[in-house]
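Extended Data, panel c. Modelled sequence:
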Amino acid sequence: MTASTSPNLYTTRKLNNIDEAQVLKKEQDNWTRLYHKTLKEIEVMINIQKQVQDMIKIVREANMTITKIKETILQVSINN
């Protein structure tokens, strides 16, 4: 990483540790960004799933209404 230009090994080692710490910090930041992006994507999927469930409920209610209308029309046509 850092070439020893100083006769003091402590300084060289300290510089290497700072470089390593910076690299680790960048990796941690990348993983943190990925984690938050993944959480947002999961949240979007959950919202879509809720919307689909709501649509299914609406379709079931509409289907029941259509069935009742159909039964009413059949009863009227039988009585006439």
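The chain has a mean pLDDT of 87. This feature is highlighted in the accompanying rendering.
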